[in-house]
Amino acid sequence: MFATKTGAHLASAITKSAFQQRWSSAVSTSYRKTREMASLGGAEHESPSLVIFDKDGTLLCFHTMWIPWIQHTAQSIETSTGLVLFPKIAQSLGLCLAENKVKPGLLAEGTTGQIANEISSLLMDNGIKSFEAREITNNSLTNSYDKILSTDLVKELADTVALFTRLKQHGTKIAVCTADNRKSSLLALKRMNVDHLVDMIVCGDDKNTAPKPSPHNAIKICKHLGVDQSKAIMVGDTRVDMEMAHNAELGAAVGVLSGIGCKDHLHRADVLLEHIGHLVNTFYENR
Ligand SMILES: O=C(O)COP(=O)(O)O
User: Fold this and answer.
1) Same domain, 160 and 232
2) Which residue out of 62, 181, 239 has the highest number of ligand 1 atoms within 8 Å of its CB and is therefore the one to mutate?
3) Does residue 1 sit within a domain?
């Protein structure tokens, strides 16, 4: 019902702003067609029953929170080891120091567990024993977490309260599926004033979960909320968000350009939006 697989390639030949207009109209046309066909067949147009949101880069500005986090972590590791490692850590996780921007990579797409493994391996490659490497990494990551949680590094990318309220008025369930830990995810949703509007949250450090792009978490959310996978859509800013949606056979993979991924990185998106503020216009008949 939500599959709007219009060609991502259409975009490549046109300029950015023209591209954005063309792309959204191409998407709407295709989506309209799907709806028209559905109503010709006597079926009512159906809006998504569930929207699964990625958190960082989709609801919140990625860079505002995660650049200070990795900077604190690297600083603490350098203090513990006496080695200059920040450039190597940045490179291995996908932080571009020249632009001070997070690029696609583990920092943007991985869980804290995956990031910890990467940093530990890097410390071992630099002569630190395995046990010590893990201990230094874990302590540095935890201290850095505590540091950023005590500051207000939540920068919203759209009016989340308005969007979530609108979705609820349409009877749509809302879930958040993030690589981030539960503690900071809950705090972020609370700071955004939307914690009471979210039906389910799946986080990177939850038991019985699997990192994106595994379909596991998306399927788990659909089952728990009693929604058929084809009636759910996934909204995210990275390749793994799009791949999780396809792997779980969700109704649509919706890419947003407000985070890490550019249009090339998000080439598997069925629908590409500037930011989540355009979601209702794209997917709902009565806005
Ligand atoms: O915590 C991260 O690194 C990414 O989190 P996200 O899955 O919400 O984008």
Assistant:
1) yes
2) 62
3) no
pLDDT in tens, 81-129: 999 999 999 999 999 999 999 999 999 999 999 999 999 999 999 999 9
Q: Is 173 in the same domain as 49?
A: yes
- Which residues, at least 6 apart from 103, have a Cβ–Cβ distance to it below 8 Å? 94, 95, 96, 260
HSE of 9, CA atoms in CB hemisphere, 13 A: 0
26-50 tens-digit pLDDT: 343 344 334 444 444 444 567 999 9
Q: How far apart are the first and last CA of the chain?
A: 18
Q: How far is the CA of 107 from the centre of ligand 1 (A)?
A: 8
Q: What is the pTM of this model?
A: 0.83
Among candidate residues 149, 166, 201, the one where a domain is terminated = 149
Domain containing residue 199: 10-60+156-283
